[in-house]
Design goal:
The protein is mainly alpha-helical. It has 24 helices and four strands. Helix 2 packs across helix 12 and helix 6 crosses helix 24.
Length: 528
Protein backbone atom coordinates (compact mmCIF):
# COMPACT_ATOMS: atom_id res chain seq x y z
CA UNK A 1 0.00 0.00 0.00
CA UNK A 2 1.45 3.33 -1.07
CA UNK A 3 1.91 5.88 1.71
CA UNK A 4 0.37 9.31 1.30
CA UNK A 5 2.90 12.12 0.84
CA UNK A 6 3.85 13.55 4.21
CA UNK A 7 4.08 17.21 3.17
CA UNK A 8 0.39 17.85 2.39
CA UNK A 9 -0.66 16.04 5.59
CA UNK A 10 1.55 18.31 7.68
CA UNK A 11 -0.11 21.36 6.15
CA UNK A 12 -3.62 20.35 7.22
CA UNK A 13 -3.45 21.82 10.74
CA UNK A 14 -1.82 25.13 9.64
CA UNK A 15 -4.41 25.44 6.87
CA UNK A 16 -7.25 24.85 9.35
CA UNK A 17 -5.69 27.34 11.77
CA UNK A 18 -5.44 30.09 9.14
CA UNK A 19 -8.87 29.23 7.78
CA UNK A 20 -10.62 29.29 11.16
CA UNK A 21 -8.89 32.34 12.65
CA UNK A 22 -8.27 34.51 9.60
CA UNK A 23 -10.18 33.52 6.46
CA UNK A 24 -13.50 32.77 8.20
CA UNK A 25 -13.42 35.93 10.35
CA UNK A 26 -12.53 38.09 7.35
CA UNK A 27 -15.38 36.45 5.42
CA UNK A 28 -17.67 37.33 8.35
CA UNK A 29 -16.53 40.95 8.06
CA UNK A 30 -17.25 40.93 4.33
CA UNK A 31 -20.69 39.40 4.89
CA UNK A 32 -21.57 42.02 7.49
CA UNK A 33 -20.35 44.83 5.23
CA UNK A 34 -22.27 43.60 2.17
CA UNK A 35 -25.44 42.60 4.01
CA UNK A 36 -28.53 44.20 2.39
CA UNK A 37 -30.19 46.81 4.53
CA UNK A 38 -27.25 47.06 6.87
CA UNK A 39 -27.76 50.75 7.42
CA UNK A 40 -24.18 51.58 6.45
CA UNK A 41 -23.46 55.30 6.40
CA UNK A 42 -20.26 56.12 4.54
CA UNK A 43 -20.31 59.90 4.50
CA UNK A 44 -17.82 62.37 3.05
CA UNK A 45 -16.09 62.73 6.42
CA UNK A 46 -14.39 59.39 5.82
CA UNK A 47 -12.51 60.64 2.75
CA UNK A 48 -9.91 62.51 4.85
CA UNK A 49 -9.45 59.36 6.95
CA UNK A 50 -8.56 57.30 3.87
CA UNK A 51 -6.33 60.06 2.47
CA UNK A 52 -4.49 60.48 5.75
CA UNK A 53 -3.94 56.70 5.97
CA UNK A 54 -2.39 56.62 2.51
CA UNK A 55 -0.13 59.68 2.70
CA UNK A 56 1.07 59.31 6.29
CA UNK A 57 2.25 55.78 5.44
CA UNK A 58 4.18 57.17 2.45
CA UNK A 59 5.68 60.00 4.52
CA UNK A 60 6.59 57.61 7.33
CA UNK A 61 8.30 55.30 4.84
CA UNK A 62 10.34 58.14 3.31
CA UNK A 63 11.38 59.37 6.76
CA UNK A 64 12.35 55.87 7.87
CA UNK A 65 14.46 55.35 4.73
CA UNK A 66 16.11 58.74 5.23
CA UNK A 67 17.30 57.90 8.75
CA UNK A 68 17.81 54.18 8.20
CA UNK A 69 19.89 54.00 5.01
CA UNK A 70 22.93 55.84 6.49
CA UNK A 71 22.86 53.40 9.42
CA UNK A 72 22.66 50.47 6.97
CA UNK A 73 25.87 51.77 5.35
CA UNK A 74 27.56 52.11 8.74
CA UNK A 75 26.85 48.54 9.87
CA UNK A 76 27.67 47.08 6.45
CA UNK A 77 30.91 48.92 5.76
CA UNK A 78 32.46 50.17 9.02
CA UNK A 79 33.87 48.11 11.87
CA UNK A 80 33.67 49.87 15.23
CA UNK A 81 33.56 48.98 18.91
CA UNK A 82 30.09 47.97 20.13
CA UNK A 83 28.85 47.23 16.59
CA UNK A 84 27.41 43.80 17.43
CA UNK A 85 25.73 45.07 20.60
CA UNK A 86 24.03 47.92 18.72
CA UNK A 87 23.02 45.56 15.93
CA UNK A 88 21.26 43.29 18.42
CA UNK A 89 19.67 46.11 20.43
CA UNK A 90 18.34 47.85 17.33
CA UNK A 91 15.59 45.26 16.83
CA UNK A 92 14.06 45.90 20.27
CA UNK A 93 12.06 49.00 19.20
CA UNK A 94 10.47 47.00 16.37
CA UNK A 95 8.85 44.53 18.78
CA UNK A 96 8.03 46.99 21.56
CA UNK A 97 4.30 47.34 22.22
CA UNK A 98 2.81 50.42 20.60
CA UNK A 99 1.53 51.60 23.97
CA UNK A 100 5.09 51.60 25.32
CA UNK A 101 6.30 53.77 22.46
CA UNK A 102 3.32 56.10 22.79
CA UNK A 103 4.06 56.45 26.50
CA UNK A 104 7.74 57.09 25.78
CA UNK A 105 7.00 59.87 23.30
CA UNK A 106 4.44 61.35 25.68
CA UNK A 107 7.04 61.33 28.46
CA UNK A 108 9.47 63.03 26.10
CA UNK A 109 7.01 65.91 25.73
CA UNK A 110 6.06 65.20 22.12
CA UNK A 111 2.77 66.98 21.38
CA UNK A 112 -0.23 64.73 20.78
CA UNK A 113 -2.37 65.27 17.73
CA UNK A 114 0.46 66.41 15.45
CA UNK A 115 1.49 64.63 12.27
CA UNK A 116 5.21 64.85 13.02
CA UNK A 117 4.80 62.98 16.29
CA UNK A 118 3.11 60.09 14.45
CA UNK A 119 5.70 60.08 11.65
CA UNK A 120 8.67 60.05 14.03
CA UNK A 121 7.07 57.29 16.11
CA UNK A 122 6.63 55.21 12.94
CA UNK A 123 10.29 55.81 12.05
CA UNK A 124 11.21 54.65 15.58
CA UNK A 125 9.31 51.41 15.07
CA UNK A 126 10.52 50.58 11.56
CA UNK A 127 14.12 51.76 11.79
CA UNK A 128 15.34 48.19 12.32
CA UNK A 129 13.52 46.95 9.20
CA UNK A 130 15.44 49.32 6.93
CA UNK A 131 18.79 48.97 8.66
CA UNK A 132 18.74 45.20 8.94
CA UNK A 133 17.28 44.41 5.51
CA UNK A 134 19.41 46.87 3.56
CA UNK A 135 22.43 46.45 5.86
CA UNK A 136 22.64 42.71 5.31
CA UNK A 137 22.22 43.16 1.54
CA UNK A 138 24.88 45.89 1.50
CA UNK A 139 27.26 43.70 3.47
CA UNK A 140 26.71 40.90 0.96
CA UNK A 141 27.75 43.05 -2.00
CA UNK A 142 31.42 42.96 -1.11
CA UNK A 143 33.81 45.69 -2.18
CA UNK A 144 34.77 44.22 -5.55
CA UNK A 145 32.27 46.04 -7.85
CA UNK A 146 32.83 49.42 -6.19
CA UNK A 147 36.62 49.08 -6.26
CA UNK A 148 36.53 47.98 -9.91
CA UNK A 149 34.49 51.08 -10.81
CA UNK A 150 36.93 53.26 -8.88
CA UNK A 151 39.87 51.76 -10.78
CA UNK A 152 38.09 52.66 -14.01
CA UNK A 153 37.96 56.30 -12.92
CA UNK A 154 34.58 56.66 -11.20
CA UNK A 155 34.46 58.99 -8.22
CA UNK A 156 32.65 58.07 -4.99
CA UNK A 157 29.39 59.72 -6.02
CA UNK A 158 29.40 57.90 -9.36
CA UNK A 159 30.14 54.59 -7.64
CA UNK A 160 27.23 55.15 -5.29
CA UNK A 161 24.82 56.24 -8.03
CA UNK A 162 25.78 53.80 -10.79
CA UNK A 163 27.00 50.71 -8.92
CA UNK A 164 25.92 50.50 -5.30
CA UNK A 165 22.36 51.87 -5.44
CA UNK A 166 21.24 49.75 -8.44
CA UNK A 167 22.55 46.62 -6.67
CA UNK A 168 20.79 47.63 -3.44
CA UNK A 169 17.49 48.54 -5.14
CA UNK A 170 15.75 45.18 -4.48
CA UNK A 171 16.52 45.25 -0.76
CA UNK A 172 15.51 48.93 -0.48
CA UNK A 173 12.22 48.14 -2.21
CA UNK A 174 11.73 45.17 0.11
CA UNK A 175 12.27 47.31 3.19
CA UNK A 176 10.12 50.16 1.86
CA UNK A 177 7.20 47.89 0.99
CA UNK A 178 7.22 46.27 4.43
CA UNK A 179 7.50 49.63 6.23
CA UNK A 180 4.66 51.10 4.17
CA UNK A 181 2.48 48.09 4.96
CA UNK A 182 3.14 48.41 8.69
CA UNK A 183 2.47 52.17 8.68
CA UNK A 184 -0.67 51.80 6.56
CA UNK A 185 -2.19 49.43 9.13
CA UNK A 186 -0.89 51.43 12.11
CA UNK A 187 -3.30 51.51 15.04
CA UNK A 188 -1.79 51.98 18.48
CA UNK A 189 0.56 54.82 17.50
CA UNK A 190 -2.19 56.85 15.81
CA UNK A 191 -4.81 56.06 18.45
CA UNK A 192 -2.62 57.10 21.37
CA UNK A 193 -0.54 59.87 19.78
CA UNK A 194 -2.88 61.20 17.11
CA UNK A 195 -5.41 62.61 19.53
CA UNK A 196 -8.94 63.15 18.23
CA UNK A 197 -7.76 64.92 15.07
CA UNK A 198 -5.69 62.22 13.33
CA UNK A 199 -7.31 58.95 12.34
CA UNK A 200 -6.29 56.12 10.06
CA UNK A 201 -8.81 53.63 8.66
CA UNK A 202 -7.76 51.26 11.43
CA UNK A 203 -8.53 53.79 14.16
CA UNK A 204 -11.83 54.72 12.51
CA UNK A 205 -12.87 51.05 12.48
CA UNK A 206 -12.23 50.87 16.22
CA UNK A 207 -14.13 54.10 16.90
CA UNK A 208 -17.13 52.80 14.93
CA UNK A 209 -16.97 49.58 16.95
CA UNK A 210 -17.10 51.61 20.16
CA UNK A 211 -20.26 53.27 18.85
CA UNK A 212 -21.68 49.80 17.98
CA UNK A 213 -21.86 50.87 14.33
CA UNK A 214 -20.93 47.40 13.11
CA UNK A 215 -22.09 47.97 9.53
CA UNK A 216 -19.84 50.97 8.91
CA UNK A 217 -16.97 49.35 10.81
CA UNK A 218 -17.24 46.22 8.67
CA UNK A 219 -17.46 48.23 5.45
CA UNK A 220 -14.38 50.27 6.33
CA UNK A 221 -12.54 47.10 7.33
CA UNK A 222 -13.46 45.46 4.02
CA UNK A 223 -12.16 48.45 2.07
CA UNK A 224 -8.94 48.37 4.05
CA UNK A 225 -8.61 44.64 3.36
CA UNK A 226 -8.80 45.34 -0.37
CA UNK A 227 -6.07 47.98 -0.12
CA UNK A 228 -3.92 45.75 2.11
CA UNK A 229 -4.35 42.93 -0.41
CA UNK A 230 -2.80 45.12 -3.10
CA UNK A 231 0.04 46.05 -0.75
CA UNK A 232 0.63 42.38 0.11
CA UNK A 233 0.96 41.53 -3.57
CA UNK A 234 3.57 44.27 -3.96
CA UNK A 235 5.38 43.36 -0.73
CA UNK A 236 5.16 39.65 -1.58
CA UNK A 237 7.33 40.21 -4.64
CA UNK A 238 10.17 41.11 -2.31
CA UNK A 239 9.19 38.93 0.69
CA UNK A 240 12.18 36.61 0.32
CA UNK A 241 14.56 39.58 0.57
CA UNK A 242 13.68 40.76 4.06
CA UNK A 243 14.49 39.35 7.47
CA UNK A 244 15.00 40.92 10.87
CA UNK A 245 17.46 38.19 11.85
CA UNK A 246 20.22 38.93 9.34
CA UNK A 247 23.83 39.32 10.41
CA UNK A 248 26.42 41.56 8.69
CA UNK A 249 29.34 40.32 10.81
CA UNK A 250 30.85 38.42 7.91
CA UNK A 251 30.94 41.53 5.70
CA UNK A 252 34.08 43.26 4.50
CA UNK A 253 33.70 46.01 7.11
CA UNK A 254 36.88 47.94 7.85
CA UNK A 255 37.91 50.20 10.73
CA UNK A 256 36.90 53.80 10.32
CA UNK A 257 39.40 55.85 8.34
CA UNK A 258 39.50 59.47 7.29
CA UNK A 259 37.54 62.46 8.54
CA UNK A 260 34.66 61.80 6.19
CA UNK A 261 33.96 58.36 7.64
CA UNK A 262 34.49 59.60 11.17
CA UNK A 263 31.96 62.39 10.74
CA UNK A 264 29.55 60.00 9.07
CA UNK A 265 29.84 57.48 11.91
CA UNK A 266 29.33 60.19 14.55
CA UNK A 267 26.29 61.57 12.69
CA UNK A 268 24.68 58.13 12.32
CA UNK A 269 25.31 57.08 15.92
CA UNK A 270 24.03 60.44 17.17
CA UNK A 271 20.82 60.18 15.14
CA UNK A 272 20.37 56.60 16.36
CA UNK A 273 20.78 57.71 19.96
CA UNK A 274 18.29 60.57 19.55
CA UNK A 275 15.67 58.56 17.65
CA UNK A 276 15.89 55.24 19.52
CA UNK A 277 17.63 55.93 22.81
CA UNK A 278 16.23 59.26 23.94
CA UNK A 279 12.52 58.27 24.12
CA UNK A 280 13.29 55.07 26.04
CA UNK A 281 15.72 56.81 28.40
CA UNK A 282 13.09 59.49 29.06
CA UNK A 283 10.57 56.75 29.83
CA UNK A 284 12.82 55.19 32.48
CA UNK A 285 13.66 58.58 33.99
CA UNK A 286 10.03 59.65 34.30
CA UNK A 287 9.12 56.35 35.95
CA UNK A 288 11.29 57.31 38.94
CA UNK A 289 10.79 61.08 38.87
CA UNK A 290 8.17 62.08 41.41
CA UNK A 291 6.86 65.41 42.61
CA UNK A 292 9.28 65.33 45.53
CA UNK A 293 12.35 64.19 43.59
CA UNK A 294 13.60 60.73 42.59
CA UNK A 295 11.86 57.72 44.11
CA UNK A 296 10.21 54.36 43.48
CA UNK A 297 6.70 55.20 44.64
CA UNK A 298 5.20 54.57 41.18
CA UNK A 299 6.91 51.18 41.08
CA UNK A 300 5.85 50.13 44.58
CA UNK A 301 2.21 50.88 43.73
CA UNK A 302 2.11 48.45 40.79
CA UNK A 303 0.54 45.81 43.02
CA UNK A 304 -2.42 48.06 43.82
CA UNK A 305 -5.76 48.11 42.05
CA UNK A 306 -6.89 51.69 42.00
CA UNK A 307 -8.91 54.24 40.06
CA UNK A 308 -9.88 53.16 36.56
CA UNK A 309 -8.09 49.80 36.73
CA UNK A 310 -10.01 46.52 36.89
CA UNK A 311 -6.85 44.72 38.06
CA UNK A 312 -3.48 45.78 39.41
CA UNK A 313 -0.63 46.20 36.89
CA UNK A 314 1.15 43.17 38.37
CA UNK A 315 -1.98 41.06 37.88
CA UNK A 316 -2.20 42.36 34.32
CA UNK A 317 1.46 41.37 33.86
CA UNK A 318 0.62 37.85 35.05
CA UNK A 319 -2.30 37.72 32.60
CA UNK A 320 -0.01 38.84 29.78
CA UNK A 321 2.67 36.29 30.61
CA UNK A 322 0.17 33.41 30.66
CA UNK A 323 -1.60 34.45 27.47
CA UNK A 324 1.66 35.16 25.63
CA UNK A 325 3.03 31.76 26.68
CA UNK A 326 -0.05 29.98 25.36
CA UNK A 327 0.03 32.03 22.15
CA UNK A 328 3.73 31.28 21.66
CA UNK A 329 3.11 27.56 22.08
CA UNK A 330 0.29 27.62 19.54
CA UNK A 331 2.31 29.69 17.07
CA UNK A 332 5.28 27.31 17.37
CA UNK A 333 3.17 24.18 16.85
CA UNK A 334 1.39 25.60 13.82
CA UNK A 335 4.55 27.23 12.47
CA UNK A 336 6.70 24.11 12.80
CA UNK A 337 4.06 21.98 11.06
CA UNK A 338 3.75 24.54 8.28
CA UNK A 339 7.51 24.77 7.78
CA UNK A 340 7.90 20.99 7.84
CA UNK A 341 5.11 20.58 5.30
CA UNK A 342 6.45 23.19 2.91
CA UNK A 343 10.00 21.82 3.09
CA UNK A 344 8.80 18.21 2.64
CA UNK A 345 6.95 19.17 -0.53
CA UNK A 346 9.91 21.16 -1.84
CA UNK A 347 12.25 18.21 -1.28
CA UNK A 348 10.03 16.02 -3.45
CA UNK A 349 9.03 18.47 -6.16
CA UNK A 350 11.19 21.56 -5.73
CA UNK A 351 9.69 24.97 -5.08
CA UNK A 352 6.30 25.13 -6.75
CA UNK A 353 3.51 27.65 -7.01
CA UNK A 354 1.67 25.68 -4.35
CA UNK A 355 4.40 26.09 -1.73
CA UNK A 356 4.98 29.72 -2.73
CA UNK A 357 1.26 30.44 -2.39
CA UNK A 358 1.02 28.70 0.98
CA UNK A 359 4.07 30.62 2.20
CA UNK A 360 2.33 33.84 1.16
CA UNK A 361 -0.86 32.79 2.97
CA UNK A 362 1.14 32.24 6.16
CA UNK A 363 2.33 35.85 5.87
CA UNK A 364 -1.22 37.25 5.64
CA UNK A 365 -1.56 37.95 9.39
CA UNK A 366 1.49 40.23 9.10
CA UNK A 367 -0.41 42.60 6.85
CA UNK A 368 -3.94 42.06 8.10
CA UNK A 369 -5.44 44.74 10.29
CA UNK A 370 -5.34 43.69 13.94
CA UNK A 371 -8.58 45.53 14.70
CA UNK A 372 -10.21 43.97 11.64
CA UNK A 373 -9.08 40.53 12.78
CA UNK A 374 -10.54 41.24 16.21
CA UNK A 375 -13.81 42.41 14.65
CA UNK A 376 -13.88 39.33 12.43
CA UNK A 377 -13.34 36.99 15.36
CA UNK A 378 -16.20 38.66 17.22
CA UNK A 379 -18.53 38.28 14.23
CA UNK A 380 -17.43 34.73 13.36
CA UNK A 381 -17.63 33.34 16.88
CA UNK A 382 -20.79 35.07 18.07
CA UNK A 383 -23.42 32.36 17.59
CA UNK A 384 -23.89 29.00 19.34
CA UNK A 385 -22.36 26.48 19.50
CA UNK A 386 -19.24 28.60 18.91
CA UNK A 387 -20.22 31.71 20.84
CA UNK A 388 -16.82 32.70 22.26
CA UNK A 389 -17.54 36.37 22.89
CA UNK A 390 -15.94 37.27 26.19
CA UNK A 391 -14.03 33.98 26.33
CA UNK A 392 -10.43 34.28 27.48
CA UNK A 393 -9.30 31.82 24.78
CA UNK A 394 -9.90 34.40 22.06
CA UNK A 395 -6.92 36.53 23.09
CA UNK A 396 -4.12 33.90 22.86
CA UNK A 397 -5.66 32.65 19.61
CA UNK A 398 -5.47 36.14 18.12
CA UNK A 399 -1.98 36.66 19.48
CA UNK A 400 -0.82 33.33 18.03
CA UNK A 401 -2.19 34.37 14.66
CA UNK A 402 -0.21 37.63 14.78
CA UNK A 403 2.98 35.83 15.90
CA UNK A 404 2.77 33.02 13.31
CA UNK A 405 4.44 34.93 10.42
CA UNK A 406 7.50 35.63 12.58
CA UNK A 407 7.86 31.94 13.42
CA UNK A 408 7.59 30.92 9.77
CA UNK A 409 9.88 33.69 8.47
CA UNK A 410 12.62 32.71 10.93
CA UNK A 411 12.35 28.92 10.72
CA UNK A 412 11.62 28.32 7.02
CA UNK A 413 15.03 29.50 5.70
CA UNK A 414 16.74 27.43 8.42
CA UNK A 415 14.80 24.30 7.46
CA UNK A 416 15.53 24.85 3.77
CA UNK A 417 19.24 25.18 4.58
CA UNK A 418 19.52 21.66 6.05
CA UNK A 419 21.66 19.60 3.67
CA UNK A 420 19.50 16.82 2.25
CA UNK A 421 22.60 14.65 1.89
CA UNK A 422 22.91 14.44 5.68
CA UNK A 423 19.31 13.27 5.93
CA UNK A 424 19.82 10.79 3.08
CA UNK A 425 22.96 9.39 4.74
CA UNK A 426 21.06 8.86 7.99
CA UNK A 427 18.29 7.06 6.11
CA UNK A 428 20.80 4.83 4.27
CA UNK A 429 22.31 3.87 7.63
CA UNK A 430 18.92 2.58 8.71
CA UNK A 431 17.38 5.55 10.51
CA UNK A 432 13.59 5.72 10.31
CA UNK A 433 11.93 8.97 9.14
CA UNK A 434 11.08 9.81 12.76
CA UNK A 435 14.65 9.21 13.87
CA UNK A 436 15.96 11.41 11.04
CA UNK A 437 13.71 14.19 12.27
CA UNK A 438 14.77 13.74 15.91
CA UNK A 439 18.50 13.28 15.35
CA UNK A 440 19.18 15.39 12.24
CA UNK A 441 16.52 18.05 11.85
CA UNK A 442 15.75 18.80 15.49
CA UNK A 443 19.35 19.66 16.59
CA UNK A 444 19.83 21.91 13.55
CA UNK A 445 16.53 23.70 14.12
CA UNK A 446 16.81 24.03 17.91
CA UNK A 447 18.35 27.50 17.88
CA UNK A 448 16.12 28.93 15.11
CA UNK A 449 13.14 27.59 17.04
CA UNK A 450 14.35 29.33 20.19
CA UNK A 451 14.76 32.58 18.23
CA UNK A 452 11.27 32.16 16.77
CA UNK A 453 9.83 31.48 20.23
CA UNK A 454 11.45 34.65 21.59
CA UNK A 455 10.08 36.85 18.84
CA UNK A 456 6.64 35.21 19.04
CA UNK A 457 6.52 35.75 22.81
CA UNK A 458 7.56 39.40 22.52
CA UNK A 459 5.00 40.07 19.78
CA UNK A 460 2.25 38.33 21.79
CA UNK A 461 3.12 40.24 24.97
CA UNK A 462 2.74 43.56 23.19
CA UNK A 463 -0.24 42.80 20.91
CA UNK A 464 -2.70 45.66 21.31
CA UNK A 465 -5.18 46.02 18.42
CA UNK A 466 -6.98 42.66 18.44
CA UNK A 467 -6.63 42.36 22.21
CA UNK A 468 -8.30 45.74 22.71
CA UNK A 469 -11.32 44.49 20.76
CA UNK A 470 -11.49 41.03 22.36
CA UNK A 471 -10.33 41.46 25.97
CA UNK A 472 -12.61 41.15 28.99
CA UNK A 473 -12.45 44.07 31.44
CA UNK A 474 -11.71 41.76 34.36
CA UNK A 475 -8.77 40.08 32.55
CA UNK A 476 -6.74 42.95 31.12
CA UNK A 477 -3.29 42.49 29.62
CA UNK A 478 -0.45 44.81 30.54
CA UNK A 479 -0.69 46.87 27.29
CA UNK A 480 -4.40 47.47 27.93
CA UNK A 481 -3.71 48.50 31.53
CA UNK A 482 -1.05 50.90 30.28
CA UNK A 483 -3.46 52.42 27.73
CA UNK A 484 -6.06 53.02 30.44
CA UNK A 485 -3.51 54.74 32.68
CA UNK A 486 -2.22 56.81 29.80
CA UNK A 487 -5.73 58.07 29.05
CA UNK A 488 -6.35 59.33 32.59
CA UNK A 489 -5.36 62.73 33.99
CA UNK A 490 -3.23 63.20 37.08
CA UNK A 491 0.43 62.92 37.96
CA UNK A 492 0.02 59.60 39.77
CA UNK A 493 -1.69 57.93 36.81
CA UNK A 494 0.96 59.29 34.44
CA UNK A 495 3.82 58.24 36.69
CA UNK A 496 2.41 54.75 37.11
CA UNK A 497 1.95 54.56 33.33
CA UNK A 498 5.66 55.31 32.93
CA UNK A 499 6.53 52.55 35.40
CA UNK A 500 4.24 50.03 33.66
CA UNK A 501 5.67 50.99 30.26
CA UNK A 502 9.23 50.57 31.56
CA UNK A 503 8.35 47.16 32.99
CA UNK A 504 6.83 46.03 29.69
CA UNK A 505 9.81 47.42 27.79
CA UNK A 506 12.29 45.52 29.98
CA UNK A 507 10.41 42.21 29.63
CA UNK A 508 10.19 42.59 25.86
CA UNK A 509 13.82 43.71 25.48
CA UNK A 510 15.19 40.84 27.57
CA UNK A 511 13.25 38.25 25.57
CA UNK A 512 14.29 39.69 22.21
CA UNK A 513 17.95 40.15 23.13
CA UNK A 514 18.21 36.61 24.50
CA UNK A 515 16.62 35.30 21.31
CA UNK A 516 18.91 37.39 19.12
CA UNK A 517 21.89 36.23 21.18
CA UNK A 518 20.90 32.66 20.36
CA UNK A 519 20.95 33.54 16.68
CA UNK A 520 24.43 35.04 16.96
CA UNK A 521 25.78 32.06 18.88
CA UNK A 522 24.65 29.44 16.48
CA UNK A 523 21.69 30.41 14.40
CA UNK A 524 23.32 32.02 11.37
CA UNK A 525 21.32 29.83 9.03
CA UNK A 526 18.05 31.52 10.02
CA UNK A 527 18.59 34.45 7.68
CA UNK A 528 16.18 34.77 4.81
Amino acid sequence: MRRAPLGPLLLVIPALFIGALLVWPLAAVAERALRPGGGVDLDASLVPVVWFTVWQAAASTVLTLAVGLPAAWLFARVSFRGRNVLWAAMVVPFVLPTVVVATAFTGLGAPRGTVWTVLVAHAFFNYAVVVRVVGVAWAGLGRGPAEAAAVLGANRLQVLREVTLPMLAPSVLAAASVVYLFCFTSFGVVLLLGGSRLRTIEVEVYERLRLLDLGTAATLALGQLALVGVLLVVAGRWSQRWSLTGDPSRSEARPVSGWGQRLGMVAVLTSMGVLLGLPLASLVWRSVRTGSGVGLQYWTSLGEQRGVLFASPLQALANSLVMASVATGLALVVGVLAVAGVVAIERRRGRTRVTASFDAVLMLPLGASAVTVGLGLLLAFSTPPLDLRGSVVMIPLAQALVALPFVVRIMLPAARAIDHRVRDAAAVLGASPLRVVLEVDAPMLARPMAVAAGFAFAVSMGEFGATLVLARPDLPTLPLTLARLLGQPGAVNRGQAMAVATLLMVVTAVVVLVADRGRVDGGRNVDA
